[in-house]
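Q: I have 649 residues here and want to know how they pack in 3D. Can you give me a structure?
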Amino acid sequence: MNEFDPNDYRKRVLAAVEKRGGPDTSDPFELYDLPLDDDLTDAEVAARVAEVWGFWQRQRDHPKYRVLVALLVATHDERSAELLDAGHRALAVARVRAWREQRDSARYALLDSAISRLVARHGGVPRDKIAGLDEVGALAGLTPAEVAARLRRHRIIDPARPTDRGRQVRALLDEFGRLTGGATPATLLVLMGLEPTASEEQVRAGGAAWRSRARELPAGRLRAVVDELLVHVADLLEPGRDAVERYLDTVAAEVAEHLRPRVRAAVLVEDRLVAEDHAFLLDEAVALGLDRRRATAVIVGLAAELQAPIETAPPVEPARPALRDWEEPLRAARAALRAGRPVEARRRVEQSRRSAGPDGATPVRAVADEITAVLDEADTRRLAAAAAAADRRWVEALEHLEHLERTAADVPGHPADDLATARREVAEADAAVAAALAGPDAGRAAALAAVLERCPGHPAAAAALAQVPLAAPGWVSATRDARGNVVVLWEPTADGAGYRVRRRRADGSWQVVGRVADAAIEDGGAPVIGTPVYAVSAVVGGRTSAETRSDAAPVPVAPVPVVPAGPAAPVDVRAVRAPDGSVRVSWTGCGDVEYRVRSRDARGSWRVVGRTRATALEDGGAGPGPLPTYAVSAASGGARSVEVESSPG
């Protein structure tokens, strides 16, 4: 063990502890500058503890460290107790060594998470994001050199251009369609069930509803795709209407690329864009996510590229030269395609193909390709409609079936009964949502949940339910059990609620511990030093309540009424302070009952420490100073005994 150097200790230990947030983020060996590996005698350890204790006393007025030193002085007895005994010290070495390894690996967790999201979104780490990663690393105490060393594992790429963003969104929407087995949403707005003219409030409400739905998705590729799409929604749509307009301009460029060969095919056949083709292509541009104004501008621009005039109304037919043999069936094929009869159009194209020579090969092939694309989409939508109907997702089924009715009415396997059923179910769901919104607030959540049970994915019901507030747990407590695990308890809320539990890390960030249906969870992965802060929120049907934290001020609890027929009260309740600062509460009981332990602070407020069927419980949340008063009661069959207060052990 090296000589104690006050200046070196100040720079090496106090500075590090201050930066991490205080003595609760450290361990006694670091605080008293003791090595973990040396086989020290009790006398050597006692001498070093005395040296450090004297140094703290002299630093009470230090301009930078006086608050930290005051905390260390106040908790000196508890922090040094296990170091002064060889047996306790050996156990502490093993515990602290494991905790330090865990802390060091956790330093990179926040940075690695940020890097993995960038790689998943961009295929590498964009060069212009490195400065931001330095800031993320700094939150965990990493230097820029340590961040740079971590980045050597990944490919550094140039910043993404705006067109790259459009391709990323398009690829994610395509993958979303494949993963869900349905048709690919044309745009981010279509994904949220919104029109291109949606207001800022509608966009934000749609984003909020989708985020609530995303939280309920299990971990996997679909959840990752939805999370990435919601990042693009936040960046491209939610900043305001101007951002939506810019996004739609990008979509218009994609739609123009998609429609260019179809416009070219129509012009090749007719030498102009006739009124029927113009109307058909205009509707298709709108179906691809554009508003009417942009759709018109796209068609006009494509026709101008081909120097083709546009007929906006059927002209009076002038005398025309006789048609060649292949032209009449080709025109009939296009007319059938516009009328939503692709099977008939395919038959007409085959007639035209048999008569067409070199002059007609190109227009015939262009129309045939267009028919093939329509038939392929019809197959996809027919399967998606069947899957949606089987799962009672009637809104989705109706969208597919109505599209089939418009564009592929003569394709086999498109029964009218399915369309009528979907329309009836959606109409009934719409009426039920309107009734729920007009009804009393108390029953609104249950009524909307019933709509979603009958018609899953109904957008109006999901959006309305997301706006119904959900009560948060009234209190949350966190205590260590005899094995050292942290037991988190909270007040249950609504029937059928699930709960999300998060733990605060030393750097201030939060980590999800788990999602449970009960009002308790055991955290075996908690840091071994101190008791962390936990936050619990209730989750019901896609809604998430506000969080209640374990370090919130305790709510005074009304006295529990005495039930004469209740179980026998516990006896001999004792509270004893352990060397690590926690308090062990023990009692004598009998029978198969559940015990509730509460503690009373100096202000007279009660806090629930925990519930157990054993006859002892450790309170890791007890503060320094005098022992609190504890009260233990027994419960069985809905009845509770009187509370028995503790006496010092």
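Q: Anything worth noting?
A: The longest strand covers residues 629-636. Residues 315-322, 555-564 have pLDDT under 50 and may be disordered.
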